[in-house]
Amino acid sequence: MTPLLLASQSAIRLTLLRNAGLTVQAHPARIDEDALRAALQAEAATPRDIADALAEAKALKLAQRHPDALVLGCDQVLALGSRIFAKPQSRDEARAQLDALSGHTHQLLSALVLYDKGEPIWRHVGVARLTMRQASPDYLECYLDRTWPEVSHSVGGYQLESEGIRLFSEVEGDYFTILGLPLLPFLNYLSLRGFIPS
């Protein structure tokens, strides 16, 4: 089994990969995500292209430091129409995001880019659609009282794998994509290429 370097500081991604039986180490790639995202939005890039470009930038940065390694870059973008959301930096920002999402359907786009020996060899963008019920202001305040700052690690200010599920009326898409790592297509590719036993 080929060892994998994960260009991410996401604990959930690392856990998912290890739970799937992969040998993986996390080495967060330090890139200026906000600047790259802003530049792409200024060029009218689609949410899909933004997620892919951010995942690519992380994978490339780590692959340059470890040119002989198998490196996975990941990123997730939340899109409500043409509006792009990032992880909330404050409780007030999380509340504003939840207010904006409440009663609407948004998309989560989870991008993966895999590098081998310093070159990109595979990429994938998983898409999920989530409909948030119309939550009362009191409920959202109480929700954040119970979940902040844990939800600050999640784009949109919620975590579907915990109490955040109560915010939703409908979810369409792969659960792993929602968590930020489209695991099944990735494992299938690793198997087909012989990186993991099949």
Largest β-sheet summary: 7 strands, mixed
Question: Mean pLDDT, rounded to whole units?
Answer: 95
Low-confidence stretches: none
Distance between the termini: 10 Å
Number of helices: 7
* Backbone shape: globular
Strand content: 25-35%
Structure description:
The protein is α/β, with parallel strands linked by helices and 198 residues long. The chain has a single domain (4-192), classed as Maf protein (Alpha-Beta Complex). Helices cover 37% and strands 26% of the residues. It contains seven helices and seven strands; from the N terminus they run E-H-E-H-H-E-E-H-E-E-H-E-H-H. The protein has helices spanning 11-19, 33-42, 47-65, 91-101, 137-147, 175-178, 183-192; strands spanning 4-7, 24-26, 70-80, 83-85, 105-116, 119-132, 168-172. Strands 1, 2, 3, 4, 5, 6 and 7 form a seven-stranded mixed beta sheet that branches. Strand 1 (4-7), helix 1 (11-19) and strand 2 (24-26) form a beta-alpha-beta unit. The longest helix has 19 residues, at 47-65. The radius of gyration is 17 Å and the shape is globular. It starts with a strand and ends in a 6-residue tail after the last helix. The model has no long low-confidence stretch (mean pLDDT 95).
Tags for this entry?
198 residues; Maf protein; seven-stranded mixed β-sheet; 7 strands
Secondary structure elements and pairings:
Elements: E1 4-7, H1 11-19, E2 24-26, H2 33-42, H3 47-65, E3 70-80, E4 83-85, H4 91-101, E5 105-116, E6 119-132, H5 137-147, E7 168-172, H6 175-178, H7 183-192
Helix pairs in contact: 2-3, 4-5
